[in-house]
Amino acid sequence: MDKSSLIYPLFVKEGTGIEEEIPSMEGQFRYSVDRLPFELERLQNAGVNSIMLFGIPDHKDEVGSGAYDPNGIVQKALREAKKQFPDMYYITDVCMCEYTSHGHCGVLCGHDVNNDATLELLAKTAVSHVEAGADMVAPSDMMDGRVRAIREALDANGHYGAPIMSYAVKYASAFYGPFRDAAGSAPSFGDRKSYQMDFRTHDQGLDEIAADIEEGADWTMVKPAMPYLDMIARGVEKFPNIPMVAYQVSGEYSMLKAAAKLGYLDESRVAFESLIAIKRAGAQYIITYYAKEIIEKAEEWNIKIG
Ligand code: PBG
């Protein structure tokens, strides 16, 4: 495992002087834009060079307009961060759930998510992220056809070189629980099963990767990571030419943290072992809340990281 294979998720929110710990994710914080540079400096000093940005807006509405507002929280954070830390690699999560009043990942038609009407808004969001400084966009909404819609919109706006990391193999998982607390993005009714994948399916994840590559995805992802190591391995085997990313999600992180706190598990060992298992399955990159800690504590935890 080396530092360059780790991507650190970061939450930015409106306001000033905010650096608040997320209760269900010990050691993870929400930052206001003015506090973000301090954290970026710590990350850079540790040797974490890629981050994944999530935005927490003040204002939510039916159509998630904060997601594609040129002055939205992620756009503002990107402009500031890029100015101060131009060498960091900025990936943004492209989704509506943090920005919609109902908490679904797309716009609604009655009580259903309207897939096709959402595509245009996701594409607008991706373009606005790239124009604010994102190096790569990562759609996590799971609407069908979003990769193509985003690719076409990026190209139409002259951003031919902006790559897309697709959350291709993303399950409707209870392991996202702590994240939804962190981002205030739990759906106010129903669930995400009409757009995220059923975890009982055997091959659908591979079909999703194939479709996303066909639509223009540059990198692909399996999420969550540890309960789905089989899908990482099968994805890499079937599509060896596209970088595979695994997302060790909030629930995976919080489980280890909680068990360590209770003295049930040795954190240094389980954190390392879980990341190595994800690498062994074939992930080239890992998005993990442990990225910073594991590097900072490598010596204390007796871990070798290149
Ligand atoms: C947005 C999104 C989610 C996560 C990443 N992007 C939540 C969800 O789909 O409900 C989860 C990340 C984590 O649990 O760490 N759609």
What does this structure look like?
The chain is built from 10 helices and 12 strands. It has helices at 36-46, 73-84, 115-132, 146-156, 177-183, 204-215, 229-238, 250-261, 267-281, 291-296; strands at residues 6-13, 19-21, 29-32, 50-56, 89-94, 108-109, 112-113, 136-139, 165-170, 219-223, 244-248, 285-288. It has 306 residues and is of the alpha/beta class. The strands form 2 sheets. Strands 1, 2, 3, 4, 5, 8, 9, 10, 11 and 12 form a 10-stranded mixed sheet that branches. The protein has a two-stranded antiparallel ribbon with strand order 6-7. It starts with 5 loop residues before the first strand and ends in a 10-residue tail after the last helix. It binds ligand PBG. Ligand PBG binds next to helix 5.
List keywords for this structure.
306 residues, alpha/beta, two-stranded antiparallel ribbon, 10 helices, 12 strands
Task: Give a brief description.
With 306 residues, this protein is of the alpha/beta class. It is 37% helix and 18% strand.
Order of helices and strands: EEEHEHEEEHEHEHHEHEHHEH
The CA-CA distance between the termini, in Å, is: 6 Å
Chemical compounds bound to the protein: ligand PBG
Strand content: 15-25%
For the CA atoms, what is the radius of gyration?
A: 18 Å
Q: What's the main sheet like?
A: 10 strands, mixed
Supply the helix-strand structural class.
Answer: alpha/beta
